Amino acid sequence: MASITVPSEPPPPRQDCKDLRRAFGDRDKPAIIKILAHRDGSQRALIQQEYRAMYCMDLSAQIESDLWGHLKEGLLLWLPEPTTRDVNLLRDALTPATTTIIMDQPPDATTDEQPDETTDEPADPKSDQPETITRTRIDEATIIEIICSRDSSEIQAIRQAYDSEEGTTPLDETITQWFAGDCQMLLLSCIGDKLEYDEPEVDPELVEIDVEELYRAGEKRLGTDEDIFIRIFTQRSWPHLAAVYDSYKKTYDKSLDKVVDSETTGSFRFGLQTILNCAVNRPKYYAKGLRQSMKGLGTDDTTLIFIVVTRAEIDMEHIKAEYKKKYHKKLEKAIHSDTSGNYRLFLEALVGHTD
Fold first, then answer.
1. What is the pLDDT of residue 169?
2. What is the spatial distance between Cα 227 and Cα 234, in angstroms, rounded to a whole number?
3. What is the Cα–Cα distance from 242 to 153, expressed in whole angstroms?
4. How far is the C-alpha of 148 from the C-alpha of 189, rounded, in Å?
5. Residues 6+ apart with CB under 8 A from 208
6. The predicted structure's pLDDT at residue 112
7. In which element (H, E) is residue 286 found?
8. Contacts (Cβ under 8 Å, ≥6 apart) of 132
9. How far, in Å, CA of 177 to CA of 191, rounded?
10. Of 5, 187, 253, 326, whose CB neighbour count within 10 A is largest?
């Protein structure tokens, strides 16, 4: 259930654009927030089209030039509707970033050898230059987070939108290029065309078969049969996987997430855990992420913005309920105490208030 509030009779997009233009000119950030934070995805899309037509400028470019800090970051992420946003996030995360590492190796201080001053050979000007290593990386965590935390219908919408953009490399080919091994197979299976079992009802017999297969693929044997974990975690509906989780605990007295922890590692483990946590209770998964972003000294604003913005139109009310249940504090109060200014006003507008 979404947490944003939208006027029952919102102004026409053209009027919103005029009001936004005036607010940008006056640097009236609360007025900008009041409009954009209270429009749903389809309404924001119309506003962006109208703004471009009226002022020959993208609304995102206006935000980029006139705002700054976490408020700018949040509004830019908020502008697209959810599927387009996920596609943009995936595309950015799959765009490789190149970093150069300087390997500074000081001379060996333990040697007593002195340079040969009798040589006539000139010194190599490059010999004193530090060695550098160039690395090209993608944002694996964001890619895995998005693909593994979306249900089958959301994934199909994302893939269709991603692959439909002219001149783009298909999503599966891009994943194949940048990922390898079990994690590659997990992600490719997640974005596959159709689940093996996607019925709304849970089949108890299939649940027991899957539980036994997972046990034989993990705890019962030396080593792990990763293919079994990939097939069951990615080719079953979330209600079915949640039933598998419950049955495994009852049958073997060990939670399936602990099995994943002990049997897998790295990005592959992160992907499996994300799928499992979201299948069992996705609002609880995000409530925990929000808690971690505001826990202790300082705030992980990137994570806080990411979760609030991406879930406000989907299930934020359920996330708020899980947060209150688990941490005995309202989410909006936690956000209020960890943020300030117009950035706080924006997040509070998206999260809403609980009576």
1. 94
2. 11
3. 17
4. 10
5. 247
6. 46
7. helix 266-294
8. 100, 101, 102, 103
9. 15
10. 187
Angle 317-33-63 (CA atoms, 0-180°, nearest 5)? 120
Q: What is the C-alpha separation between 341 and 68, in angstroms, rounded?
A: 13
Taken as a whole, the chain contains a residue count of: 355
Instruction: Write down the pLDDT at residue 196.
Output: 75
Ramachandran region of residue 266, left (φ > 0), alpha (ψ -120 to 50) or beta?
Answer: left
Residue type, 315: D
Condensed to tens digits (0 to 9), the pLDDT of residues 59-90 reads 999 999 999 999 999 999 999 999 999 999 99
Q: Which residues of the chain have pLDDT under 70?
A: 99-135, 355
Phi, psi of 104 (to 5 degrees): -85, 110
Interval 99-122: pLDDT, tens: 665 655 554 544 444 445 445 555
pLDDT of res. 184: 98
DSSP string, 167-180: TPPPHHHHHHHH--
The predicted pLDDT at position 218 comes to 95
| Token pair listed for 307 | 């979760």
Query: Looking at residue 166, what is its pLDDT?
Result: 82
The single-letter code of the amino acid at 270 is F
**What CA dihedral angle connects 162, 167, 172 and 174, to 10 degrees?**
-110
In a 10 Å sphere around its CB, with 0-12 CB exposed, 13-18 middle and 19+ buried, how is residue 166 labelled?
exposed
In angstroms, rounded to a whole number, what is the distance separating the alpha carbons of residues 16 and 194? 41
Rounded to 5°, the CA angle 201-283-337 comes to 170
